[in-house]
Amino acid sequence: MTRPTKADLAAAADLLLPDVIGPDLRVLFVGINPGLYSAATGHHFARPGNRFWPALHRSGFTDHLFEPAEQLSLLDLGLGITNMVDRASARADELTAAELVAGGEALAAKAARWRPRWVAVVGMTAYRTAYRRPKATVGPQDHRLGPSRVWVLPNPSGLNAHYTPVTLAAAFAELRVAAER
């Protein structure tokens, strides 16, 4: 994958990142919104330093460390990726609460349409805001999106210092075990 230029990143704010989604998913992972790097490359969680792909592998969801360009291969494993908010930004904290609430409604519609077994929101603050659940913690939630159970995972951004690669992988592994039941 070619590294985007500064101009590519600036132009990425107007781009949409297509979902990796289909029927019969075990888990639909939900990022907060695409970063400019991801939007520029067309691949979810593409920024170097993002720990999504290593956590997915270390937790046992994948048999090897996927590159972001392999994202469509997730469908063969019953896994998918979407975002809470479609708009790309340099940082997730640029999103408004209204955008997150609207994104939560759009996510509920996707869950109703595609019916994944689990919807895993990768970012606790975004989940809390989108669904007005200020006390939510990492793990399974007490509500559903359509027929889908909901799980909250820590944000895999390298900026999230609260989770090490090991503890992040452990949080993903708990979901994997639940999704295999």
TrEMBL record:
One GO MF annotation is: uracil DNA N-glycosylase activity
Checking InterPro entries in the record gives: MUG/TDG, Uracil-DNA_glycosylase-like, Uracil-DNA_glycosylase-like_sf
A single GO BP: base-excision repair, AP site formation
The Uracil-DNA glycosylase-like domain covers which part of the protein?
18-176
Alphabetical keyword list:
DNA damage, DNA repair, Hydrolase
* A Pfam family the protein falls into: UDG
**Designated name of the protein:** G/U mismatch-specific uracil-DNA glycosylase
